[in-house]
From TrEMBL:
Transferase found in the keyword field: yes
GO terms for biological process, alphabetical: methylation
Name listed for the protein in its UniProt record: SAM-dependent methyltransferase
Residues covered by the THUMP-like domain: 332-402
InterPro entries in UniProt: SAM-dependent_MTases_sf, Thump-like
Keyword line: Methyltransferase, Transferase
Cited Pfam families: Thump_like (PF18096)
The organism of origin for this protein: Gordonia jacobaea
Domain of life per record: Bacteria
GO molecular function, one term: methyltransferase activity
């Protein structure tokens, strides 16, 4: 929980004098050793907005890995944590523009405008509406849209309750927040606004709802009768969200969207869907490589489709590790050296014989804590290797591999 901005703070930050003050404060180190002096200097020049200035600069620095042009946003610590990463929001906006050309899009929980600025940067969208209950965030969104939206797409930003329709937009986007107090395990009705209410309020329109990656989408389909598309998205190896697409023209399907930022900053990736063939060998012997598919593919339950696409096979039908003679381009593969025992005593000897000093341990289907095991193995050698621990049928198996490498 960071500083609580007031509307007055935001008006100051959006004004000419506020912009200049932000330039000055962004030149301050704001480190633990300089903080007392920096706070004092900011207070002398800019009270009563000194805390808002310092918080904005700190939030912008924290935002650098998540939001594009982070040094131009107005934001709060909480809003930053809740914001969709720019790469994911831009990918969604591009897809919306392509699937619904000429549509008006309404983000009914727009917060500081993470999705709005990306929608307002897409060709082919007729208009963007953003609304939220929080006046402060909305005022920040107005600034962010002006500074960061790259096209003159007509945009309206207003305070409104998501559950009271305020537009006739063709496409509605929502990103319900987790109600405070709801723990890691939360129910759909603990979201705010609650997911079932959003789907009900806008039924008959295209509704796109961003949810936490842990959403039990199978239960949503089987128990709550959700029909539409479930999209699981990862960014640079981390699963970021489960997004539900429903409404006219949207068919029932599940897909995984894998987004990866290259070393040149360009975002690439791929998609796998459940329309694809999934006919793969499910009990194959281990091949030259073991491949650990991206978390989005695993979470979306599309490991077999991914394997079929790349000519890989499963080691076991219940386990997500794949094996084959080559690694799909851009993926991380582990070249198998030999099958090894899972007994710690034998493993210790085998690893010493291979002069292993650094070991990446990958586990699926066995109850093993990789960090604790690594400590107990007491590695002293000089080679970096990888150990894949899993089960085939009921039997635990281990594969000692070369350190993981991405196929180019
Ligand atoms: C997770 S945040 C949205 C983040 C946004 N997608 C982004 O990328 O910046 C959820 C937002 O929903 C808003 N909210 C919660 N309940 C609402 C309601 N009933 N009507 C409108 N907005 C609501 C909160 O104020 C919060 O800003």
């Amino acid at each position: 929980m960071g500083y609580e901005f007031t509307l007055d703070d935001v008006a100051f930050l959006r004004g000419r004098y506020g912009e200049k003050a932000l330039d000055v404060v962004s030149g301050m180190a704001l480190t633990p050793s300089s903080m007392i002096a920096d706070v004092e200097a900011a207070r002398r020049r800019y009270a009563p907005h000194d805390a808002a200035l310092i918080e904005t600069v700190r939030d912008r620095r924290r935002a650098a890995r998540k939001l594009r042009d982070a040094d131009q946003w107005l934001l709060t610590d909480d809003a930053l944590q809740q914001a969709t990463p720019s790469v994911v929001a831009a990918h969604r906006a591009a897809e919306i523009a392509q699937r619904f050309p000429g549509a008006v899009i309404h983000d009914i929980t727009c917060s500081i405008g993470g999705e709005v600025v990306e929608l307002a940067s897409q060709d082919g969208i007729a208009g963007v509406i953003g609304s939220d209950l929080d006046h402060v965030r909305l005022s920040m969104a107005q600034h962010n849209r002006r500074v960061l939206g790259q096209l003159p797409t007509p945009t309206a930003l207003l305070v409104a309750d998501a559950l009271t329709p305020t537009s006739t937009a063709d496409v509605v986007i929502a990103d319900p927040a987790r109600r405070s107090g709801a723990g890691r395990i939360f129910r759909l009705d603990q979201l705010t606004p609650p997911l079932p209410d959003v789907l009900m309020t806008y039924s008959g329109r295209v509704v796109i709802v961003k949810c936490a990656p842990g959403l039990d989408y199978r239960a949503l389909r089987n128990r709550f009768g959700f029909t539409g598309e479930v999209q699981i998205t990862s960014l640079d190896g981390g699963v970021r969200e489960a997004c539900l697409w429903s409404g006219p023209g949207i068919v029932d399907r599940t897909r995984a969207t894998v987004l990866r930022t290259g070393s040149d900053g360009v975002v690439g990736g791929f998609e796998v869907t459940d329309d694809e063939p999934d006919d793969v060998d499910q009990h194959g012997p281990v091949g030259r490589w073991i491949v650990d598919p991206d978390g989005a593919v695993v979470r979306a339950g599309l490991v077999r489709q991914y394997a079929a696409r790349h000519g890989l096979r499963q080691l076991d039908p219940q386990i997500a590790y794949l094996t084959g003679e080559q690694v799909p381009l851009g993926e991380r593969g582990f070249e198998v050296i030999e099958e090894v025992s899972t007994s710690e005593k034998v493993l210790r000897k085998t690893l010493a014989a291979h002069d292993c000093g650094t070991l990446e341990i990958l586990v699926r289907g066995l109850d093993v804590d990789p960090d604790a095991l690594r400590k107990r193995l007491r590695l002293k050698g000089s080679r970096s290797l990888a150990l894949v621990l899993t089960r085939i049928g009921r039997k635990g198996v281990g594969f000692l591999c070369e350190a993981g490498a991405r196929a180019r």
